[in-house]
């Protein structure tokens, strides 16, 4: 039996307004409410609500044989509750069918797994609680921001109690191996790893409406046939994509909804094909081997690495300055500051600073509120500067005193080091003069 696993990412960031240098220290509200609400309204009208309605119909029609999984970021959940609570209700209806799995991720849809284990776990626990509160669901499978994964990240995820994790079936990691099997973490084999079949996923997510594609038009029957013709030994085909694929990336007039509507029937017409959720696969299948990923991968761009977010000096500087606040955040109790801290970490802010204008350039312009990456960087750093001032002001007096003591100690240590170097330099000069006289 070959299992088809559909997973959808649902994410919307809180975009920042134009925040000028002169706003620093004077205006502490960072968000473009109009853009955030208008983008969400557009996407939920074209994509989320009609696709949820279609999925609910398909689940009922196929009497539990059609199954999917979602990961909804914390910032998307917050926007739904703020602007469109009907979307939450729509997802609740899907979860209540028993055929929809909710995955865990970082609440902030952040890159924190690359930086700090403690903060990573706090964000994951916050997301778990939100999913439990809103949908009555306790996730057992984890999906990191943008499918970012490495052996070390997988180890942290296992330590948090998750049974499985999903990531990209990157060619440079797999080599000759197929993504169509269950694997396990190289450090902690008890963590099962599901790999995206990026060719078949991208046939739907990116190539579906491309009339220059040699396989256009793509029908559900043709797609089901491709899966059925795969090696009979292969156990799973993981189709992972943005939920906006349906109705937003691929507009309604491309026939994407007709394709989705017909797909379960065409898949289930093959006796050796079935649908499964990630947790079912993790529970029912045995890993064929460990997957070694010493350097983090993602599902982004041609390289399937981190360069979409951390590939240039601007992104790296913003990333380091953001997480330099971690020691003080540990002492912060101000709810407004903590909310801003969550939204400052959203990976989209770093994505907007990307300077890759070649093979992947168009992807980086999707709902991007900035004209250039440099504008995105300056705007973000202005916001970050104001946030830093507010965070410093919120710290208890003993923290300020400790900071001053640390600064004084560092200055003293540098002065002592300078004295020693000056003394050594003077001694070296004296030796040279002595040698010259001789």
Can you walk through the features of this model?
Strand 4, helix 5 and strand 5 form a beta-alpha-beta unit. The protein is an alpha/beta fold. 49% of the residues lie in helices and 11% in strands. Helix 8 packs across helix 9. It has 17 helices and 10 strands. The protein has a domain of 290 residues: 7-stranded beta/alpha barrel.
Jot down its keywords.
single chain; 438 residues; alpha/beta; 7-stranded beta/alpha barrel; five-stranded parallel beta sheet; five-stranded mixed beta sheet; 17 helices; 49% helix; 11% strand
Which percent band covers the strand fraction? 5-15%
Average pLDDT figure: 93
The CATH class name of one domain reads: Alpha Beta
CATH architectural group of one domain: Alpha-Beta Barrel
- N- and C-termini, Cα separation: 91 Å
> What best-fitting shape do the alpha-carbon axes yield?
globular
Rg to the nearest angstrom? 25 Å
Outline the biggest β-sheet: 5 strands, parallel
Tally of DSSP β-strands: 10
Indicate the percent of residues in helices: 40-55%
Low-confidence stretches: none
Summed up, the helix count is: 17
Task: Please provide a brief summary of the model.
The protein is an alpha/beta fold. It has helices at residues 33-61, 74-83, 85-95, 117-135, 151-159, 171-174, 198-205, 220-228, 256-268, 278-284, 307-310, 313-323, 326-329, 335-344, 348-351, 373-394, 397-437, and strands at residues 2-10, 68-72, 100-102, 141-143, 164-168, 182-185, 192-196, 236-242, 273-275, 290-291.
Task: Summarize the SSE layout with pairings.
Elements: E1 2-10, H1 33-61, E2 68-72, H2 74-83, H3 85-95, E3 100-102, H4 117-135, E4 141-143, H5 151-159, E5 164-168, H6 171-174, E6 182-185, E7 192-196, H7 198-205, H8 220-228, E8 236-242, H9 256-268, E9 273-275, H10 278-284, E10 290-291, H11 307-310, H12 313-323, H13 326-329, H14 335-344, H15 348-351, H16 373-394, H17 397-437
Parallel strand pairs: 1-2, 1-8, 1-9, 2-3, 4-5, 5-7, 6-10
Antiparallel strand pairs: 6-7
Helix pairs in contact: 1-3, 1-9, 2-3, 8-9, 12-16, 14-16
């Amino acid at each position: 039996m070959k299992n088809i696993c559909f997973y959808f990412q649902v994410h919307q960031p809180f975009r920042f307004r134009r925040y000028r240098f002169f706003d620093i220290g004077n205006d502490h509200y960072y968000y473009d409410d109009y853009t955030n609400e208008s983008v969400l309204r557009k996407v939920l009208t074209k994509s989320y609500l009609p696709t949820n309605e279609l999925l609910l119909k398909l689940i009922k029609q196929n009497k539990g044989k059609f199954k999917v999984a979602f990961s909804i970021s914390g910032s998307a959940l917050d926007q739904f509750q703020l602007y469109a609570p009907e979307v939450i209700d729509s997802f609740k209806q899907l979860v209540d069918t028993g055929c929809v799995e909710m995955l865990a991720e970082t609440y902030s849809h952040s890159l924190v797994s690359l930086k700090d284990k403690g903060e990573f776990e706090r964000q994951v626990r916050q997301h778990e609680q939100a999913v439990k509160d809103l949908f009555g669901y306790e996730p057992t499978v984890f999906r990191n921001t943008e499918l970012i994964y490495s052996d070390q990240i997988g180890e942290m995820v296992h330590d948090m109690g998750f049974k499985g994790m999903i990531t990209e079936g990157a060619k440079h990691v797999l080599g000759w191996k197929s993504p169509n099997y269950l694997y396990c973490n190289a450090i902690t084999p008890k963590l099962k790893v599901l790999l995206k079949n990026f060719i078949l996923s991208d046939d739907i997510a990116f190539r579906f409406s491309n009339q220059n594609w040699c396989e256009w038009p793509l029908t559900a029957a043709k797609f089901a046939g491709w899966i059925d013709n795969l090696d009979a030994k292969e156990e799973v085909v993981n189709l992972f994509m943005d939920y906006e694929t349906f109705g937003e990336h691929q507009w309604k007039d491309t026939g994407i909804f007709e394709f989705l509507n017909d797909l379960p029937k065409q898949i289930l017409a093959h006796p050796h094909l079935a649908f499964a959720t990630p947790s079912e696969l993790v529970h029912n299948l045995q890993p064929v081997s460990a997957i070694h990923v010493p350097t983090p991968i993602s599902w982004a761009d041609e390289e399937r690495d981190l360069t979409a977010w951390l590939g240039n000096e601007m992104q790296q500087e913003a990333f380091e300055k953001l997480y330099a606040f971690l020691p003080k955040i540990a002492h912060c109790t101000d709810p407004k500051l903590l909310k801003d801290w969550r939204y400052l970490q959203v990976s989209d802010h770093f994505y907007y600073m990307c300077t890759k204008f070649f093979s992947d350039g168009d992807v980086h312009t999707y709902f991007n509120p900035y004209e250039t990456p440099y504008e995105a960087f300056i705007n973000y750093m202005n916001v970050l500067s104001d946030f830093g001032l507010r965070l410093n002001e919120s710290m208890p007096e003993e923290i300020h005193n400790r900071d001053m003591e640390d600064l004084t100690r560092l200055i003293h240590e540098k002065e002592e080091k300078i004295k020693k170097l000056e003394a050594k330099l003077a001694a070296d000069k004296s030796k040279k003069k002595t040698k010259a006289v001789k």
